[in-house]
């Protein structure tokens, strides 16, 4: 369809829980049109129903699913914001690099690096036209050497490098790669245990940082939530 109103549209991956869900709720409260995706349709549907959003369930590592998301963006009339939040943790318990299963690492790069880039490629034309923005969710593991986090950290370091180069190549699109810090999420619990994860702040604590970026539109770059 050709959009006639001024409502802004966001596509958020990994939107059924954690930071993706918290951001989706915040944007919906301000009247954004939302396209939400996550692997679990059963978890995603009630979120979409709650927020009046379009749910497109599937795995962003699947090219066919990414095509469906691109079609959804076109049908909604364009895109103002792409949030690459979906992410895998990799092998658990977190193994040292000396014993990291290479097939698991390949899968992790597909999910955490190639999938976000491919989705950017599919939606970039629309983002350019609307002078939109991209938020790639990163991690302090991208820049710090934590034992056991080599596989996950390597994918986030790669995502950060892609983000920086994309920012240099695409002057009409803002690109922010955001380190949210530790959050009390299912992923962190899988990595360090539920008790330690529970001591971290909830993902909703990061939303004000993201909303400031979206509202104030600073120059592209790395952003660390404090």
Tell me about the largest β-sheet. 7 strands, parallel
Name the beta content range: 5-15%
Predict the CATH topology: Rossmann fold
Computed over alpha carbons, the radius of gyration is 17 Å
In which range does the helix fraction lie?
Answer: 40-55%
Give the spatial strand order of the biggest sheet: 3-2-1-4-5-6-7
Rounded average pLDDT = 96
Shape: globular
Helix count, per DSSP? Answer: 8
> From the coordinates shown, what is the CATH architecture?
3-Layer(aba) Sandwich
Q: What is the helix/strand order?
A: EHEHEHEHEHEHHHE
Helix/strand-derived category reads: alpha/beta
Count of the domains:
1
* N- to C-terminal distance: 40 Å
Q: CATH H-level name... which superfamily? A: NAD(P)-binding Rossmann-like Domain
Which spans have pLDDT < 50 for at least 5 consecutive residues?
Answer: none
Number of strands: 7
CATH class: Alpha Beta
Protein name: NADP-dependent 3-hydroxy acid dehydrogenase YdfG
Pfam family, one: adh_short
GO molecular function, one term: oxidoreductase activity
Organism: Streptosporangium subroseum
Identify the notable features of this structure and list them briefly.
Rossmann fold; alpha/beta; globular; 226 residues
